[in-house]
Design brief:
alpha/beta, Rossmann fold, Alpha-Beta Plaits, 2 domains, 6-stranded mixed beta sheet, 4-stranded antiparallel beta sheet, about 30% strand, globular, binds adenosine-5'-triphosphate, binds magnesium ion
């Protein structure tokens, strides 16, 4: 499935004199998860709608697996599962009924429909609810049915607009687990989100936009390295509060940029050189016999948040 691709070329959408998306050129290849970040009104949903033929671009084009979405919408979207602005499921319908309707829309043969419904409800852990009316479901359960609907055609490409927004922490965690499972199935996932934690946790790459313009598209690690004002850091705790000479000792380790005191027995060590350096740093700290009792890398989310805020200045 490594021939999967999503491309946009100078994709632009004007609403009257207002430009919501401006000359957006992006290209994703292969199986991976790309996070789509940007403040409210940045143009994420509009971009995803153009990618999925729900909105016509003012200029530019979108292609899925090389097929132009505007020119050959049905064929282009054939490999895609789409979840944009979570539709309200008619409350009197059960998941089985709602998904049967989706199956019909996709032209899935009637003989295959029950098996597909079982499979997608299993993936979103809703098997026990197949014949219950969705009107009584929690927001999280409804969203899981929406995700199941996007999976009915067994898509290789998933285009998701804020799949866990509006859910409580448990609902968010459930949706995250589902997407992580989907990621393991060799799909190309393009997903907008405001949750930097979820993007840092399972996206391989990130595209950030603001005011309709692409700010950066790269791997999360590169975005953080290129943009974060802080760079990578680890926090260490030491057994003893006698810290004579310790700060200097750490400072001399090659790759260490700065050593800061956090409290009596805790230091924050800022370093460059990515994961290889993080590994060397731990080895060197142990070899330095400074009485290290814990070693905690700064979270991916904190570093991505730092990069995001640096890039999207004035957006708040
Ligand atoms: N149909 C429309 N008519 C006029 N303006 C629109 C329309 N759809 C979107 N916009 C405007 O385009 C801009 C981008 O909207 P969009 O929904 O794509 O942003 P977003 O990045 O998805 O934001 P959010 O994070 O809040 O979901 C906004 O200023 C929005 O008001
Ligand atoms: Mg949106």
């Amino acid at each position: 499935m490594s021939d999967l691709s999503i491309d946009t070329s100078n994709l632009t959408k004007n609403f009257g004199s207002f430009t919501a998306v401006s000359n957006l050129t992006l290209s994703f290849r292969g199986t991976k998860c790309v996070g789509f970040l940007g403040p409210n009104g940045a143009g994420k949903t509009t971009t995803l709608k153009m990618l999925t033929g729900m909105v016509h671009p003012s200029s530019g084009s979108a292609r899925i697996n090389g097929i132009d979405v505007q020119a050959e919408k049905k064929q282009a979207l054939y490999p895609c599962g789409v979840l944009i602005e979570s539709p309200e499921i008619y409350p009197a319908l059960t998941p089985r009924e709602a998904l049967s309707y989706i199956a019909e829309l996709h032209g899935i043969p009637a003989s295959e429909t029950p098996g597909r419904i079982r499979s997608v409800l299993d993936q979103v852990r809703m098997t026990d609810w197949v014949d219950k009316r969705t009107g009584k479901f929690s927001k999280g359960m409804k969203q899981r049915v929406n995700i199941a609907a996007s999976l009915m055609s067994d898509p290789d490409i998933l285009i998701l607009d804020e799949p866990s927004t509006g859910l409580d922490p448990r609902g968010m965690a459930e949706v995250r687990t589902i997407i992580l499972e989907l990621k393991k199935q060799q799909k190309l996932i393009f997903m907008s989100s405001h949750l930097l934690g979820e993007v840092a946790d399972f996206c391989d790459e990130v595209a950030m936009i603001d005011q309709g313009r692409l700010l950066i598209y790269d791997t999360i690690e590169s975005v953080v390295q290129r943009v974060s004002g802080q760079g990578a850091a680890v926090e260490i705790d030491l057994a003893s509060s006698d810290l004579t000479g310790v700060q200097e000792k750490i400072q001399t380790i090659p790759g260490v940029d700065r050593v800061e005191h956090v409290d009596a027995r805790t230091f924050l060590i800022r370093f460059s050189g990515g994961l290889p350096m993080q590994q060397r740093l731990l080895e060197q700290l142990v070899a330095a016999h400074i009485g290290i009792i814990s070693y905690k890398p700064s979270s991916g989310m904190a570093r991505l948040e730092d990069a995001y805020l640096n890039l999207i200045k004035g957006g708040y």
